[in-house]
From TrEMBL:
One of its GO terms (molecular function) is porin activity. It comes from the Bacteria. Residues 1-21 form the signal peptide. InterPro entries: Gram-neg_bact_OMP, Gram_neg_porin_domain, Porin_dom_sf, Porin_Gram-ve, Porin_Neis. This is Putative porin. It is found in: Cell outer membrane. The lineage of its organism: Bacteria, Pseudomonadati, Pseudomonadota, Betaproteobacteria, Burkholderiales. Pfam families: Porin_4 (PF13609). Residues 11-320 form the Porin domain. GO terms for cellular component: cell outer membrane; pore complex. PANTHER family: MAJOR OUTER MEMBRANE PROTEIN P.IA, PROTEIN YDDL-RELATED. It is a multi-pass membrane protein. Its main location: membrane.
Length: 358
């Protein structure tokens, strides 16, 4: 605790200085909190209410900067810390748990090193109908099955290459496993391409990760698209996951619509269909419990009202109906204990919150 406190005090002292020491450094952040009510959270008809951190986007603060090196090249870096706005604790058990990288950039693209977002995150979230550029929210339907479709979002010990050429944006990423006994143990490898031309956007991404002991390889992929007509944007996407150990398979398909009703009010809604099959087990139990196949349907609606460019309030509602082994995955993830003796269950949630950018 003393070490964590010292780090926070050091960061608090350095951030204002860094933000003013050179014009190429920017201090930024988001604070977002919401009040949420969830019915039947554990498939035992127990409800839950509380103040949740993040709400429509994870709370954070960070530093990012650039230095001109001449010849069209520049040095770049980003340090970003996540925190829980409900209790003030550091997220991800790290001072800069969201991002921590440094690298070089130029007309040839960028090459960066550190803890960074994978291609699935950078491309896949762009087609979530409820994202709208804000980031994932606390109870996003893409979390059905235990938040498994993004390979943990970030890669430690990673090298990432990115480049934009015309309407195409490309990312390649590699994470060193740093495990004894084999070069491939614990490694990650992936990439993706996004196309953006006028009203149309398309994207595809893939990432895989070997387990630390080399006995399992997890493969995730994402495909999606969006199209804008006037004030409305339609979204369509599909994500999948396959685990080589036990051949567990997961998939989620979704479609939705966003509409800018007024300059301040944005409305969005979406439908999600989730499926799991094969030797699916629990995620967090010391001894994994077999769950098997199942599926779920979810509908979610969001209204976001902007008081200014920096401050918004939002209202969200969602319903998830799960069947078969999906009941166990969902109750373990949200309530901590997997339920295996219930064949189907419905969970309803509502959330209201505020988001401020600085």
């Amino acid at each position: 605790m003393k070490t964590s406190a010292s780090l926070w005090l050091l960061a608090a002292g350095l951030l204002p200085c860094a933000a003013h020491a050179q014009s190429g450094v920017t201090l930024y952040g988001i604070v977002s909190s919401a009040v949420r009510y969830t019915s039947n959270v554990d498939a035992r008809h127990h409800d839950q209410a509380g103040l949740v951190s993040g709400g429509m986007v994870g709370s954070r603060f960070g530093l990012k900067g650039t230095e001109d090196l001449g010849g069209g090249n520049r040095a770049i870096f980003q340090l970003e810390s996540g925190f829980n706005s409900d209790d003030g604790r550091v997220a991800y058990n790290a001072l800069f748990g969201r991002q921590a990288w440094v690298g070089l950039a130029g007309d040839w693209g960028s090459l960066t090193f550190g803890r960074q977002y994978n291609a699935l995150n950078n491309i896949g979230w762009a087609f979530d109908p409820l994202d709208q550029g804000w980031g994932n929210f606390w109870s996003d339907p893409l979390y059905i099955g235990g938040d498994i479709f993004f390979q943990d979002y970030r890669i430690n010990n990673s090298v990432v290459y990115q480049r934009t050429v015309g309407p195409f944006s490309v990312q390649l990423d590699y994470g060193a496993g740093e495990q004894p006994g084999g070069m491939s143990r614990g490694t990650t490898l992936g990439g993706g391409v996004k196309y953006q031309q006028g009203a149309l956007a398309l994207g595809v991404a893939y990432d895989q990760r070997r387990s630390d002991d080399g006995g399992n390889t997890i493969r995730n992929y994402s495909v999606g698209g969006s199209y804008t007509v006037g004030k409305a944007t339609a979204y369509l996407g599909h994500m999948g996951r396959r685990e080589s150990a036990g051949d567990a398979r997961f998939a989620i398909s979704f479609l939705g619509l966003g509409y800018q009703l007024t300059p301040a009010l944005h409305l969005s809604g979406a439908y999600y269909r989730y499926r799991q099959s094969g030797a699916v087990t629990t995620q967090f139990q010391d001894v994994p419990v077999h769950l098997g196949g199942g599926n779920a349907d979810s509908v979610a609606l969001v209204a976001d009202y902007a008081f200014s460019k920096r401050t918004s309030v939002y209202l969200e509602a969602d319903v998830v109906h799960m069947r078969g082994g999906t009941v166990g995955r969902e109750t373990e993830y949200w309530a901590g204990t997997p339920v295996t003796d219930v064949s189907q269950s419905t969970r309803v949630g509502v959330m209201a919150g505020v988001r401020h950018h600085f």
